[in-house]
Every structure is written in C-alpha cells, then in structure tokens.
Design a protein that fits this description.
By secondary structure, the protein is α+β, with helices and mostly antiparallel strands. It has 11 helices and 13 strands. The structure holds zinc ion.
Length: 324
C-alpha cells in the first residue's frame, strides 16, 4: 500500500482540476492519451518511441540566445496563461502542470525568479524534492543546451517514477539483485561516506549513478562529479548533461547523462532528417517523436546513431576518472 503523501495528493488534485479547467492542457492530455508507442531494440536494449504530435513545439523550439531574448518567457508568472495555477514547492519553486505532457501527470517546476538554467543552482532542490516525492515521482533536469526549452528560466520537471525503460532497470536491478547491461555495472565503482558512484555498462550512452541513503552525502558527491565533468569536459555555460533524482527503497539516486551535443547531426524537418531533440526522457529510453514519419521510420540502428552522437561515450567518460 502506498504511503500517505500530502504533497503527492495535492499535485494529483491540481493535475485533475487543471485538465478540466484549462483548455490548452486538456488538448495536451488528449494528445498524450492518443499518442502511439512502439518499441525498438538498440544493442539488446529496449527503447520506446512515443509519437506525440503535441510535442512538436517543444522538439522544434528555437533555443538560440537571439530567439530566446525575443520571446516572452513562458515560465515567468506575469506571462503564464491565466488558467495556469500552481502548488508551492518551497525555496522559491512552484509546481505547474505541463500543458503538453509526455507523462500523466507531468509537472514543470520553475523558480519564481527569472534566472538561467544551471545544474549547480538547482541540484540541492532536485534531491530534496525527490525525497519528498519518494516512490512516486522522479525529479529531473535538462541542461540549457540539452533539451531545455526555456534555457533562460531555471526549472526542474517531475514525472511518475519508473515510467521509462532506464528507470525500470535502475529500480528493478536492486530488487532483483541482477545486473542488466543498461543498469549499474559492478566495476568502475567507488564507495565513500556510504555513497556509491558507478558508471553504467552501456558503451554508447553511459550514465553516472550516485546512490546513498543520506541526502547531504549524496549531494556532496554529486556536486563533486559535476565539478569533475566541468573540469574534463568544459562547455559554456556548464558541462552538458541531463540529470535525475529519485528516491525509492530508502535510497536516493542521482543519475547524470553527460552529453556531447545538443541535437543529432541530422536534426531537422527536411527529407532524411529527424525531429528528435533529446532531453532526459529521451536519454532514459523513451524517445519523443512529434512527427509521424520519424515515429514510423526510426529503427534500432537510427536510434543508436542518435544516442551515439549526443552522448559522451563510455571510453571518454572513463578517462575522466570521475570516481577517484
Ligand atoms: Zn522567466
């Protein structure tokens, strides 16, 4: 039986009410309900494709500095749709319903203040929210050049815990004691202060998994790893990455996907191109394809190419010695 959680109840109430009273969100929820899902296999790993035409704006978003400066920020309270209401998340953050959801429910968690998207600023909050939403929601972050559609306004997101192929393995691996190839590897591991740091065995799209029971210790280790990424893979304005935090079975886990590029080389809408703009959800094995032709045509090989191009490979990542 699920443990009573007042915050989770308030979020579900907000979601249900907004889906009724806000036409834009009602359409987004309908798009999601009618979206199609197809599985492809990449190197023995299962990936899902979600054909969700409601996401075309997000996947096609212009996120260059000039375009961003020219549009009103949709996460600032003064520009938000009049129907959009929120639930206080504490520390100057607010839960808002995502009107073009990938999940049901799917929340965006911006700061009240208009400030740039930076992992260093929001990492402590990400872990705190993951603990408060224990067993129910994953809290995640897309870097300013790694899928965030508002790189100028700091925001996290929250999705139902375990809703993606990677999370199924991540949480399931501990329950079963198994060691699937996409889950944490037994090697490349360091322990210290009750916190484990591991790199997953996936050669194409490795993730750094930081696990521990104590939030302060996990945060300190995660901040160290981010600092190492910044040192070894310096990009402006921060090392490219997607990140998540989730709390389950008494353990807090932070997962970082270090990135090599913003979008695949064949990103676009011309013939031969794909409209896939990978963020954390895509890195977790749920690729969002807002166009029918991409959904129909992408196979395991094409998906592997996308991941290979946007990820830091395992060999490169190992050279950084993130667990020294
Ligand atoms: Zn803003």
């Amino acid at each position: 039986m699920a443990v009573a959680n007042e915050l989770v109840d308030r979020l579900q109430t907000l979601w249900d009410a907004q889906a009724n009273e806000w036409p834009m969100m009602a359409r987004g929820v309908e798009h999601l309900a009618s979206s199609e899902v197809r599985e492809v296999e990449r190197g023995g790993l299962r990936c899902k494709l979600q054909f969700n035409p409601g996401r075309v704006v997000s996947a096609g978003a212009k996120v260059d500095a000039k375009s961003i400066a020219a549009r009103p920020c949709f996460l600032c309270e003064s520009n938000r749709p009049s129907e959009q209401r929120g639930v206080d998340a504490g520390d100057g953050y607010v839960f808002l319903c995502n009107p073009m959801p990938i999940f049901n429910p799917h929340f965006t968690v911006p700061t009240l203040e208009h400030q740039p998207q930076r992992i260093g600023t929001c990492l402590p909050k990400m872990l705190e929210l993951a603990e408060r939403l224990s067993g129910r929601f994953t809290v995640f972050y897309n870097g300013p050049k790694c899928g965030a559609s508002a790189p100028d306004h700091l925001h996290l997101q929250a999705s139902p815990l375990g809703a993606t192929p990677f999370e199924e393995l991540l949480v399931g691996v501990r329950k079963s004691g198994g060691n699937p190839s996409q889950g944490p590897a037994d090697h490349d591991r360091s322990c210290g202060g009750g916190v484990d740091v591991e790199v997953t065995a996936d050669p194409v799209q490795p993730a750094i998994v930081i696990t521990g029971a104590d939030r302060v210790a996990v945060l300190a280790r995660a901040e160290q790893v981010v600092a190492k990424l910044a040192e070894h893979f310096p990009t402006d304005p921060e090392p490219m990455m997607n990140a998540l935090a989730l709390h389950a079975d008494g353990k807090l886990r932070v997962v970082l996907f270090p990135r090599a590029s913003h979008r695949p080389s064949n990103y676009g809408t011309d013939p031969g191109q794909v409209l896939v703009s990978p963020g954390l959800v895509d890195m977790l094995g749920l690729l969002i394809t807002p166009r029918r032709e991409d959904f129909d045509s992408l196979d395991g090989e094409a998906v592997a190419k996308i991941y290979r191009e946007v990820s830091l490979g395992r060999v490169t990542l190992n050279q950084a010695g993130l667990w020294d």
